[in-house]
Amino acid sequence: MNGTRGLRMASGLVAACVLLCTPSRAAAHLVTTGMGPVYDGIGHLLLTPEDLVPVFAIALYAGLRGVVSGRRTMFLLPLAWFIGGLAGSVMSITILFPLPVVSFLILGGLVAMDYRMSVNAITCLAIALGFVHGFMNGAVLRDGAGVAGLIGIISLLFILVTLVSALVVSQKKTWVRIAVRVVGSWIASTGILLFGWSMR
Amino acid sequence: MIRRLVGGMLKFVPLLAALALLVPSSAFAHVEQGQATGFFTGLQHPWSGLDHVLAMIAVGLWGAQLGNPAIWLLPITFPMVMSLGALMGLLGIALPGCEIGIALSAIILGTMVVGEVRPRMIVAALLVGIFAIFHGHAHGTELPAGQSGMLYSMGFVLATGCLHGIGIMLGLVHYWPAGKVIVRGAGALIAGMGITFLWRALI
Fold first, then answer.
1. ipTM of the predicted structure?
2. What's the whole-model pTM score?
3. Which domain holds residue A105?
4. CB atoms B76 and A112 under 8 Å
5. Rounded to a whole number, what is the distance in Å from the CA of B168 to chain A's nearest CA?
């Protein structure tokens, strides 16, 4: 049992490394608010749907899967994002892989299906998401807001994940879960369309 | 049930108001071109064709008639399969008889509403899914270049979902005896419009 879990985690890490090593052109841009680097970071996340929607989706999914998943995601996603951001700002690797497509499809699909996954697997997913997206952010923030910008991003991340997952966890009515799953299907649908745009 | 549903929704009004505050109106003045317009173009696109609007409302009406789980399963199925159809369009994969398929979707889905047909769930989902491919393909080939693909896609899917939501909301009157007649009448109207779409597609 432990061997299977270890194998899954190892394969997940290998997949994350392969994604990171795929070279590509960064299409992101830094938002300048004029209020300092922390607010630049906050503005960057708010105005970058490539990052914001996957965060929203993992928060919904963690909320659907219960309190423990929500709590772990609330703390580990910002932490992984921060570590990934630091790594991204140090290394000069830019990811050209259409990462939002993968994030939208996987997370949207999981929310739409309300897929039953173990808490550890959800934790790994949150860490992988945070690290990879943080890595991309780090590369963008290197020449601008820097670490302070990264702190702004993870502060907003913590608030968003806490609010969204807590809202979903606290709602026991069936129609609320259905509404969340419908939103997940919209995210997955957007991912399919994005895949088409990236192939065009 | 309706009162509880409406009451539950009203609780979210403050949250929606707060979210509305986050919508940046200054985005129109953003120096990066095509971002805000991409979202609004996507949002407008599904409303631009009456055939598409009526078919999606028919999906919502039929889902409301069929009740749980169709009321949520059909509106989930439609956008996801529609996106696959749009993907085909974006990749340049041809789909013959697309306009005929769209017209038939209005006729058949409208007929299902008129007759209050209750097939097995899998049959209903397949029927909706097949027609969604035609709708998605038509939109996929019409997606404009030079705009943010991300925001366009989000607006496009959101508008499609809203149309389903309108259909479901209209379909909820089905729980009253008089509403049942109104919903079936709406289905007849959609089927009738579908016939005119088919006529136009064939000529």
1. 0.72
2. 0.76
3. 32-199
4. yes
5. 13
